[in-house]
Write a structure and sequence with these properties.
Layout (H helix, E strand, L loop, with lengths): L3 H25 L12 H19 L3 H28 L7 H26 L1 H5 L4 H7 L21
Amino acid sequence: MKNFSTWMIVLFVIMFWVFRIIIAVAGELNMDFGGLTPLNQQMEIILLFVVLVCLILIIKRKLLGGLIYLLAYGMYFGTDILNNVQTLLLAVEGNIDSNIYINLFMSLIGIILPIAVLLDLLVDKSRKNNPKDKKTDWFYKNEKFDRKLDDRADKNNYRTM
């Protein structure tokens, strides 16, 4: 994670994850949190743990974490987007609840974030060009093991017969 954009995307993912925790707790306690309710309480809790694992994989720059994150949030929020858009299209003028707009906005954020994470992982060149290899990096990336030549170094080219 060397890029500023990567840090910002991960920060937004963490903030959205904490926000979903607050919504899940408010839904469990039957509190109104600005009209936001979990789509499915049990699935929301399972999804919070799945996203926690995906977040660790995303921080480690693994492509699998981004794919699982997109798949999980796409299935969860994608159906809500389709249902809310269909409700908005079929609604009679004046009978539209503001909670539909709020839930649609949160669902759109829930779809945009995984797409941004996956694009960031795919575009990141340092993940491909400089992979970590613990077997050799301790030697080659450590300056105290570099050999320094001084005046006493043997510069003769001896020939063997």
